[in-house]
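Quick board copy: two proteins, each given as sequence then tokens.
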Amino acid sequence: MKSMTSHDTLSVPRDFICPITREIMQNPVLLVEDGHSYEFDAIERWLTDNNTSPMTNKTLNDRRFVNNFNLKSAIEEYCAQKNTILSSNQFLTFNIRYSRMPNTWKNKPTLNICVSLLGSSNTGKTTLARYLQYGLQSKFVHLNSTVTVAADLSFFYLDQLYEDKYVVIIQLSDIPGMERYESCCDNHFRHCHGALIVTDSTDIDTLERAELYWYKQLQLKGQDHVEYMLVCNKSDLFQRHCDDDYRRIFLERAENFASLHQISIHYVSALKGDNISSMFKQLILRILQNELLLDQIKENSSLNGRSSIKLKRMRRVPATQVSLQSPSSSSTTQDECDRDSFRRRCC
């Protein structure tokens, strides 16, 4: 175990540190006469060369020591909690990656999170998805955007393991926004764990549509504990091209909608990338912190893992081994043919 720095020592309970090694004890023992605990190996070496207490420097009349099991249990519990906190803090630094996962993660369990982009046509959902894919380079591809007529799927992963063992994979579904394609959306309402309800902040009709249709459909068809956010896109155009009266009305309507349904609001620019990554990371964290959703995601992951194991164990029978007759039946038939041939020769 590493030595404690001055910063670490301040955060560790004093009784957990061996007075000799200045490290957290792994196998603490209690020196009977002076009443202090030490690391077993350290006090054993000390008593080989000394006849005094390491703490009081007084001569020892009784050199016996006994295991301090209560202290050991307390130290183990503290270390487990410390590791959990460190792991959680490390995970919070995650980034969203749109590339191939490391080969070292291939056999690790996965958490598959489904996120849907909901909203009317021309609100910038596809541009938002492309920013998550390409980052600032997305400005070179946004001009080729076309109307979404079916759900476009993108897959991402987080570059930090969740709970030090799970690979988090995100399926992002860009849902068609035109009314004639709305029948395609039902499956994505039902199975998503998170949703971004996207509006065009320069078009107040998209905000009304978000409240009257997209939000209601998500409540009606979505899972009970789905996490969602209201995304007001095109904030750059909103500030530059909309007059004061329009901005005031839009902001009031958006805030009333959010307050009524207790939805967080994020003002973003998918084209410029403003607030996109932070907003998406917040949604992922909310999903992972939702215990009911997380239990469901872990259960699905476990079921998928067992299914894949069963598939690996299945063996396909080569076509050359397939026969309409069993081996015993084939052997019997051959014996009968041999007997008939023998009878004909005898006659």
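And the next:
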Amino acid sequence: MALRAHQPSAVLLGVSLLGLTLSSCSSSGVSTVPEDPGSSSAPWGLNLREDPASVLSASQQAAADHNLLLLATARTSTMQREMQQAADAGYSLAGIQGGKTAWGSWELVVIMQRNPDSTPKAEYWLLATSKTSTMQEELQLAGNSGFVYRAQTSFNKETVVILERNRDLESIQRIEYKLLATTKTSTMQQELLAATVAGFNFAGVTVAEHLFGNKEIVTILSRPVTGN
């Protein structure tokens, strides 16, 4: 089904976040990340040093005193940009879910939470792809730049993963990612055991429907890179 083209919406919630499924995502067109965390240039053309209030849309600015922000869009590339704008205004990822909303259209929904006492620090990298081999490559690219797994979900036959990095860090801790994908739970069990023996820790899992209609269990694991 073709994605419905429409403008992303940002809705403010002044209530506690309840029951939103956390998960991870991917993107076939990965944005370039800064060469170092202290760089003043952001991967999406945003000035990370500017006044946080100036990077929010009008509707988001009107809700600046509240603690929850809802972002919804049919395009993963748009979501990455919206998330970074919110992060520059002091919000951080709280939850993500992909699925069909009104009129049967696919939307990616993200909840961002704001701590008024904290300084904006987070950089986000959103990955979205229907190919697990591509996702493995993009995950490792993000891991080499110090991005940490935060969440994943499935979205219109794509697996979507969100990673986060503290841009104020003086040094990068590289992370090695391993993606396991199979249609059989018994096979997944065996692969999980082998990965944990090798020192990997579980990060997240989703069941995603891919292009040819088959459903795969997609599990992501990680471990810190030691040495050079």
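Board note added afterward: Residues 1-8, 11-35, 37-50 have pLDDT under 50 and may be disordered.
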